[in-house]
UniProtKB/TrEMBL annotation:
Pfam families: FAD_binding_3, Rng_hyd_C. This is Oxygenase. GO terms for molecular function: FAD binding; oxidoreductase activity, acting on paired donors, with incorporation or reduction of molecular oxygen, NAD(P)H as one donor, and incorporation of one atom of oxygen. The keyword Flavoprotein applies. Residues 6-333 form the FAD-binding domain. Keywords: FAD, Flavoprotein. Its cofactor is FAD. It comes from Actinoplanes digitatis. Gene3D superfamilies: 3.30.70.2450, 3.40.30.120, FAD/NAD(P)-binding domain.
Length: 492
């Protein structure tokens, strides 16, 4: 075994969640090493849906151009019942980006910022001694130890870190499952959540000619699997449900997923934290699982970077569990409902009819659309009852001394932003923000043509785009800066 090597944060897992977290940590100045057992990046496009809030986050980091021009659909669903996802966001709807492409973009971004990604590195042991985390890694060259103040598990629903630490993961196992495959060379009709007498069938042909199929036979329980199903199992199930023959096609990949629904009791265990599917396991209904995990990473990254910095705010890191566990529980509840609506037999038909009628009402439709899109999140606040606190900052255009700038551009550096709405450069609010200039940008700006923030002098925005404080009192601003971003930098 080689000698222990030091860094500031170890991330286990180079999927989308781990790679986004690595980039967020580097924006905050933290040294980070990502370890991944896979030797090469995935070529399987499992999760392919990005929702509005995730796209807003990517926009705030300048990542949209790298994604290209992905297809966009304002149609979504809730348990297979059509749902219009139009929301007050320029990124509303769902964007179809293959997971392989999302991982490629995030890895290139994180590495360009200085993150280290080590592939072919398997975690075999982890120990938190109270002062640091020691991770034992096996590679083709042998074993080594990485040591860091913190480790984050982003290693999926079968998390090795969760197993090694014995973290409590309550919930229910899978009762039903869907078989899924990407198949080339087949000609079958598209089916959008089609419920036939024997089961559920979904088929969608992509522009490249590959057809994604998913199938569930009503009443068929989830089996105990030690690996993915064979293509023959998909062929047989598809024929029993639809009468169509897939056997002449070429499978590109095949897997199965169930309706298991579990959530860690605590997202933080001392110096070990969990994000994405390592923290919560759910059926990937409408892409919510991937987006939930990416938003975990956006919430955690800036907080953990401050924690390993010179002047960490007291208690800030604990807010990760407090905020994201609540969001995760709500998403898991809606996915449980969707799983029953999708995979239940004729006994759920009357509920589906009733829900379809309710979703014809605009208010009900908008509420579910905002939930699925991640736009309804409001983190709990202790600084007042203003309804804007804890919510994402709207996508506004701000008039600054240097010209108009959008909300996303203000957040591009991954730092906090103190918006001095009524002041001038060098005014009282600017002077208050000066001791935090290494972590927070103070910007003199007015919203252009929007009255939502006309009634307060200043707004403090977190690096993940959520409103932390609103007010006119410079002393209140100073207190909020200290609470969210730590002690002021000493003058001198």
């Amino acid at each position: 075994m080689t000698m222990a090597e030091d860094t500031q944060v170890i991330i286990v897992g180079a999927g989308p969640v781990g790679l986004l977290l690595a980039g967020e940590l580097r924006l905050g100045g933290a040294r980070v090493v990502v370890v991944e057992s896979r030797v090469t990046p995935t070529t399987e496009s499992r999760a392919s849906t990005l929702h509005a809030r995730t796209m807003e986050l990517f926009d705030s980091r300048g990542l949209l151009a790298a994604l290209g021009d992905p297809p966009r659909d304002h149609r979504g669903h809730f348990g297979g019942i059509p749902l219009d996802l139009g929301q007050p966001s320029r990124h509303s709807g769902q964007w179809k980006v293959p997971q392989a492409r999302t991982e490629q973009v995030l890895q290139e971004w994180a590495v360009s910022l200085g993150a280290q990604v080590r592939r072919g590195a398997t975690l075999t042991g982890v120990h938190d001694d109270g002062a640091a985390v020691h991770a034992t890694i096996r590679t083709a060259r042998g074993r080594s130890v990485l040591r860091a103040p913190y480790l984050v598990a982003c290693d999926g629903e079968d998390s090795t870190v969760r197993r090694l630490t014995g973290a409590e993961f309550p919930g229910r196992p899978a009762h039903r499952e869907l078989l899924r495959a990407d198949v080339a060379g087949v000609e079958i009709p598209d089916r959008r959540f089609e419920r036939l007498a024997p089961g559920l069938a979904i088929a969608a042909r992509r522009p490249d000619g590959v057809t994604r199929v998913m199938v569930h036979e009503f009443g068929r329980p989830a089996g105990q699997r030690t690996g993915p199903p064979g293509f023959g199992e998909v062929v047989d199930a598809w024929k029993r449900v639809t009468g169509e023959d897939l056997s002449g096609g070429t499978p590109l990949w095949v897997n199965a997923f169930g309706d298991a629904n579990r959530q860690l009791r605590h997202y933080r265990h001392g110096r070990i934290l969990f994000a994405g599917d390592a923290a919560h396991q759910q059926m990937p209904a409408g892409g919510q699982a991937l987006n939930l995990g990416l938003q975990d990473a956006a919430n955690l990254g800036w907080k953990l970077a401050l924690e390993v910095g010179a002047r960490p705010p007291a208690g800030l890191l604990d807010s990760y569990h407090r905020e994201r566990h609540q969001v995760g529980a709500r998403v898991l509840a809606n996915i449980r409902a969707q799983a029953l609506l999708l995979l239940g037999d004729e006994e759920v038909d009357s509920v589906r009819v009733l829900l379809g009628e309710l979703l014809a009402e605009e208010g009900n439709r908008d509420r579910l659309a905002a939930m699925i899109s991640g736009l309804d999140v409001r983190y709990p606040q202790e600084d007042g009852d203003d309804p804007r606190l804890g919510r994402r900052m709207p996508e506004l255009t701000w008039q600054t001394p240097d010209g108009p700038v959008g909300t996303a551009a203000l957040l591009r550096a991954g730092r906090g932003v103190l918006l001095d709405r009524c002041g001038r450069p060098g005014g009282p609010m600017s002077r208050i923000g000066r001791p935090w200039a290494d972590r927070v940008d103070t910007v003199t700006a007015r919203p252009a043509g929007d009255a939502e923030f006309e009634d307060h002098t200043a707004v403090l925005i977190r690096p993940d785009g959520y409103v932390a404080w609103i007010g006119a009192d410079v002393h209140g601003a100073e207190e909020a800066l200290r609470r969210w971003f730590g002690a002021a930098t000493p003058e001198g």
